[in-house]
Amino acid sequence: MALGTAAVLWFELRPTPQTSHGQYAARIPLTIGEWVGEDLPVSADTVLILGTKDIINRCYVNGNGQRVWFQAVFAQDNRRAVHPPEICARGHGESLERQAVVSHKVAWPASGYQPGDAVLTTLGELKKPVNFEFKELVLRYGDRRSIVNYWYKAGSRLTCNAVKHEWNLFRNNFTGGTTTNSLLRVSADAPTAADIETGRGLVYEFTQEVFPFVIASMP
Question: Does 158 score more than 90 pLDDT?
Answer without folding.
Answer: yes
